[in-house]
Amino acid sequence: MLAYTLRRALWAIPTVLAVITVCYLLLHLTPGGPFDTEKQLSAAVLQNLNAKYHLDEPLWRQYLRYLAALLHGDLGPSFRYNDWTVNDLIRKALPVSLGIGGISVPIACVLGIGFGTLAAVRRGSLIDHGVMVLGNVGNVVPPFVIGPVLVWVFAILLRGAHGHGWLPAGGWGDGAWQYRVLPIALLTVINMATIARVMRGSMIEVLGGNFIRTARAKGLPAHTIVLRHALKPALMPVVSLLGSVCISSITAAIVTESVFALPGLGQLIVNGAINRDYTLVLGLVVLTTVVAVLFNLLVDLAYAWLDPRIRY
Amino acid sequence: MNLKLNLTRVCSARLSATVLGALSALAVASIHAAAVAAVPANVALAAQQELTRHADIEVESLDPAHIESVMANQIGVDLFEGLTRIDAAGNVVPGVAQSWTRPAADTWVFKLRRDARWSDGQPLTAADFVYAWQRLVDPKTGSKYTILVECVKNAKAILAGKAAPAELGVRAVDPYTLEVKTETPAAFFAEVVSKADMAPVNRAAIAKYGDAWTRPGNLVGNGAYVLADWQPNNHIVLAKNDKYWDAHDVAITKVTYLPIESDETSLRMYQGGQFDFTYRIPSGLFTPLSKQFGAELKVSPVLGTYYYSINNEDPAFKDKRVRQALSMVIDRDLLTSRLTQAGEKPIYGLTVQGTKGADLYLPDWASWPMAKRVEYARNLLKEAGYSDAKPLTFTFTYNTNDLHKKVALFVTSEWRTKLGVNAKLENIEYKVMLKQRHDGKLQMSRDGWYVDYNDATSFLDLIRCNNVQNDQRYCNPKVDALIDEGNRQLDDAKRAALLTEAQALAMADTPMIPLFQYSGDRLVKSYVGGYALTNYVDQRATQDMYIIRH
Fold first, then answer.
1. Chain A partners of B141 at a C-beta cutoff of 8 Å?
2. What is the pLDDT of residue B37?
3. Distance from B266 to chain A by nearest Cα, in Å?
4. In this structure, are strands B393-399 and B444-450 parallel, antiparallel, or unpaired?
5. How many CB atoms lie within 10 A of CB B315?
6. Closest Cα to residue B514, out of B440, B463, B477?
7. What's the mean per-residue pLDDT of chain A?
8. Gap from B160 CA to chain A (nearest CA, Å)
9. Which of A28, A35, A42, A256 is most worth mutating to test chain B (most B CB atoms within 10 A of its CB)?
């Protein structure tokens, strides 16, 4: 297992390198550069800027320069945000995204797995229908509709004694819990809906298996059958899903961060792309790739834990 | 008490004007009464003077040498004060400079106040401006927004690496006298120096902290506020600067800017009580919001235009009759009253309401009935060689945006139904459109312009031969000659007459299709004082605002 983990970690290096290279080329091939603005810059100013950011060098040299800096942990200066480096921006944004995604994913997992299991066990009951409705609503209604509805109810309709809403409509303030409640609720609803639907389907399939029939024939109580025998194999598809759920909730919760105007990584991704902020986009790509590799590894390790037949 | 102080300062400024006028026979005195956060006598202030403002973007920088956006300039003028500043009503009033004269068409002399201080308590002198402007034009600084400083003599040569920063046309005659030579006569220069880009910067802080000098705790400014906190995409918090020379007239003690890019989110935050005023309202909600919020919705014209840029070198548009025909048949009144519906004003020329230095342009045909305009336009197209059998066909490009789409559908429908013109709509990403337009690859496209300073010349840059902003690729040497002649005038009326003539001459060629003047639509809580609708340049310093008891 240790050798496998190390091997996967080493494989991450060429993976990250390949992603950076492709992204680097795509960014430079995209029409419109970081200094194309409504008010056009004079040739002299453009030349000064190109010199400052080394854009006047051949692309391969810029690329090598970027890689050399990356090896030292330096993601470079932001092309748009002059007063901050990309490291600064990510350092400020990551805790916000982790504070939202990192909390909502475990909650969504517990609730999604719980509701999904309950719906599968009580198939056809009111609970099952309720879970299915919740799952479908969470999947079909987009977050930019659910988010504003939550805000309308809890930040505008329901008001405290001081005249302000119960909860803030947006922003992050000092990161107090009040600012986190609605974004976490939104992300949780979205993720929980997906997890519950997948869990329900998986659990129904597992419960129809021969080994479950055998367990029932042995007279084991229902909760023992579900928790001890069915839960682990039923979790396999959910675990597969978790990698992408974690990545989209932590490093790319673009819609949620936009609806609540959170200063997280999602905002940086959008602004980086719009502004052609090459270094910022690349920095976020590096981060997302590392996170993706990490979560994929964790998912693979979880497989081995869940299914004794899988060995690395 | 505030009123009394104001009167004292006004009298003092007037006295300065008299003395200076007597001393300098050549000088054209231009002394203005100092303005302060004038609180009307019958208004009671709230005990807590804290304001939360909406910023429509995360600003690119708080370093005056790197400020380029309207919002960064807005926050910048709270932190840094230039030689002049814009007061609540939009007038140019003394800032660090107590007074200024223009002894020659290309020379300005600013007399600095002796009580101006940096936020660390050190005195501020003319040398600080010299340093800041030389740093701004130094190629090594890599400033993006250099339009303002390019007014100063030799700035362009220095930016191009053909002269040393020390050769910039600015010098400290003595610690409290700054002399500026402009590249060409610039009647509007007193307003140029009110912008954050032209503010002084603290040499010691930059030397000590390098690129990190604008971080909280490092930043040393000279404005009414100091930087208390800055979390990117989260907030910028400013606290009142007790060292500011006019601190006793600054009411707001703390201002927080929240960068919210979604107008919908900012509206909800306003409704939830998190904002005291918003920078914008969501597109398409003007009417319901005006019903819901009444007087809280402030509507004031701003110095920005919405127009369609025409590539005058494109074969389809080389003939000015074609361009004029297309412009004539657009019902701008219908467009602004029924479609955009957000307080915009129809325009037919380059300049807009509130622009200094030239009169508005209104062609004769603007008052004709639409049927007559259509008939005239059809004849123009016919003369240019187009007919129903051979219709004018071209591609119109706009960037992805609901408003641009709505306007494009309306305008192209006007052309199709009234002239039989076939305009194909193309929708592309913003930066791609900018690049293609700058490269002359677009036939016609959606465009907009906000002035850099309140003067007609900032609009006229759009049509001057070989000007970098002239995406229209229009060139009429007679127009340029009139503008140059106007700029040489020391008499404002003569200058305005010449610039008005230049605009009329250019617009007779229809180098572009102006549609409407933008409106600054904002939600402002009723307890926020100091928000004037006449501030066309839309530079609203927090020091001019106050919170009314509520």
1. 48
2. 56
3. 8
4. parallel
5. 9
6. B463
7. 90
8. 5
9. A42
Which residues fall within 8 angstroms of residue B113, CB to CB, at 6 or more apart?
A: B94, B96, B97, B98, B176, B245
Q: What is the pLDDT at residue A149? A: 93
Separation between Cα atoms, residue A266 and residue B16, nearest integer Å: 55
Beta-carbon pairs below 8 A across chains A and B: 168
ipTM of the complex: 0.87
pLDDT in tens, B389-409: 999 999 999 998 889 999 999
- Helix, strand, coil percentages (3-state) for chain B, rounded to 5, are 35, 20, 40
Q: Which residues of B touch A89 (CB under 8 A)?
A: 232
Q: How many CA atoms lie within 13 A of A48 on its CB side?
A: 23
Q: Smallest Cα–Cα separation from B415: which of B311, B306, B327, B509?
A: B327
Q: Residue with structure tokens 């040499």?
A: B203
Rounded CA gap, A151 and A262, in Å?
14
Could you report the per-residue pLDDT of B112-133, keeping only the tens digit for each? 999 999 999 999 999 999 999 9
Q: How many H-runs (helices) and E-runs (strands) does chain A carry?
A: 13, 0
Cβ <8 Å between B469 and A49? no
Dump strand ranges (E) for B402-536: 422-428, 444-450, 512-523, 528-529
Interchain pair B272, A42: CB under 8 A = no
CA-based R_g, chain B, Å: 24
Rounded to the nearest 5°, which phi and psi values hold at B117?
Answer: -135, 155
pLDDT at B266: 93
Lookup: tokens for A282 = 């690349």
Chain A positions touching B214 (Cβ under 8 A) are: 83
Identify the pLDDT of residue B223.
97
Q: Residue B251: which residues within 8 A CB-CB, separation 6 or more?
A: B37, B39, B45, B49, B543, B545, B546, B547
Amino acid (one-letter) located at A90: I
| Lowest-pLDDT range of A135-144, B101-110, B464-473 | A135-144
Residue in chain B nearest A30 by alpha carbon? B432
Q: What is the mean pLDDT of residues B276-299?
A: 92
Find the closest chain B residue to A149 by CA distance: B268
pTM exceeds 0.80, yes or no: yes
Contacts of B469 in chain A (CB under 8 A): 39-40
Query: What is the model's pLDDT at position A312?
Result: 66
Task: Name every chain A residue with its beta carbon within 8 A of the beta carbon of B264.
Answer: 148
